[in-house]
Amino acid sequence: MTLTPPAIVVEDIHKAYGELKAVDGVSFTVAEGEFFGILGPNGAGKTTTLEIVEGLRVPDGGSVRLLGENPFPRNVALLPRIGVQLQASAFFEKLTAREQLETFASLYGIDAKTAGEMLDLVGLTDKADTREDKLSGGQRQRLSIACALVHDPDVVFLDEPTAALDPQARRNLWDVLRAIQERGKTIVYTTHYLDEAEILCDRVAIMDHGRILAMDPPATLVRGLDAPTHVILERGSLSLEDARAIAGADDVHADEVSLTISTRTPAPVLSTLAERGTLDGLQVRTATLEDVFLDLTGREYRA
Amino acid sequence: MSGAFTSLSKAMAKGFFRDKATLFFSFIFPLMFLVIFGLLFRDAGAEKIKIGAVGDGPVLAALEQTGAVELERFDSVEVGVRKVRDGDLPGLVEATGDTVRLRFAASDQSRAGIVRGLVAGVTQELNVRASGQPPRFAFAAEQVEDASLKPIQYLTPGIMSWGIAVTAVFGAALTMVNWRRKQVLRRLRLAPITPSTVLSSRLTVTIAVAFVQALVFVGVALLPIFGLRLSGTWWLSIPVFLLGVLAFFAIGMLIGAFCKTEEAATGAANIVVLPMAFLSGTFFPIDAAPPWLQSVSKAFPLRHMNDGMMDFLVRGQDASALLVPCAVLVGFTLVVGFIASKVFTWEDS
Ligand SMILES: Nc1ncnc2c1ncn2[C@@H]1O[C@H](COP(=O)(O)OP(=O)(O)OP(=O)(O)O)[C@@H](O)[C@H]1O
Ligand SMILES: [Mg+2]
To answer: How does it sit in the membrane (chain A) (predicted)?
Structure first.
């Protein structure tokens, strides 16, 4: 455990919009240098939670310490140390990508050269002179992230930064975020990509209906689930009866294209299958965050 | 801090100058009014009464010197009289030797009266002078200011004030609404800058744009074809100009604070500015309006900006005329600005 004070301490925050409890008693702590993810379905309260921590919204109750200070009312001393990418990108009308970034940079006293490097970092150099409204969705997203990072903040808040990104851009962003973390910065982010959260985050919080349902490192969450391993075969390579007869097969079901065997003892099941020579097109899927999510929210996850 | 001010001002200026519709309504549209009205009314007010003249002599020469009439020469009395009979001319002066004879048409009473008075007056004056006696009654005539401004002289300050007011109101209101709707204000709130930096950079851009507008409008009106003539105290219009911009900027901020969408802001701005434009002497001199309308118009800041601009740009008033327009505009700015600052929000809801 580290001795440095935590970057963020949130205690029992509440926020209601009329009858709707958008955030309903959320508490968590993010250590300095930690990569913290918040997951949850639409309307779970992720954005609201994040914006309360940033100081953009005032909670109805509870307390927030951000880098040891209170983020609201508007705390100007704190602002240069945090970087925020809002869920909806905020750009100046009619300015090019480069101009947007330079304008934001100058608000923090950062020169145009650094802004140019930032553009390079998110792979937008060839779009530098394109106006904001002519950028694609993913390009806007990348520009918005660059604007959040340009002043090299200590704590970075990203609200669904990888939404709308193509696989290549997503991987690139992962590299950027990892590099930032390696320099000791704290990152808090929300996402709908559970596989991504599993790879990137030191810890994740799973939210629904304004509450945190679980909070741990992804591996711990998955292990704690005690979920079966799924062995997936091509349909027709094995009959349902034969599959059910395999020792260790807990459950078997089939759809048009595949046959799935659920098991808690994958090794003997796989060796039995190998003996029968039915390994063609075989896939093994162990539990992931998606299963955790399904288990916690009772909802199938669809990104 | 100054870096933030500069870059925000630049961002807003670029937003302004890159929008073709905004440029059109800020520059071309008001200029169209200036050009059309300027050309349409170019000769109005300079119109002189035409009188027919036959013969020659000191009376005809003196008549011409009054500058009030234009003489149309005829070789014979018959031709001239026919013109008067046909109603083409109000009168014909026949000067032969020491006799001056005026024939006039009775159909147009008022013009006949003017012509009679003029010719009689000039003749009597010459008579007095010929007698060698000093005149018993001194008669002095001087032109008072200034119901007879040439149209371009009142059109320029009027249309200029209107154009500047429209641009200031719309610019301030639409920037605020757009920035709030697109979350730029929220994002700015997360940057280490003060609200007054945002406000002052927007005001700076508004003043800069208004300055360019003023240069363009006055520049065009000064072209020989329109013939604007600036008075010697034109520079006293600068404080009126600045305070006027400030007042309309405050109105724009108020609208921007109230309205959620650009459409609503455009509507509200039109509702505020259009009546002012028609009732403040933008397109016609307000002195010609009925008294109640003049009183109503005094409630509008545009009227006072207009008056101030006219006083100094073309009427050549001295600094004492600054007081009323400046005081009204300052008061307006303070009141409206105060309300705007109370209603202002960084984001919707
Ligand atoms: N300003 C607001 N006024 C009223 N209700 C709001 C407001 N902001 C959020 N809500 C409500 O609060 C709930 C939580 O919203 P929030 O934006 O935090 O969800 P989210 O987890 O970020 O969802 P998403 O994945 O769609 O971004 C939603 O039901 C939303 O309708
Ligand atoms: Mg959200």
So the answer is: Peripheral membrane protein
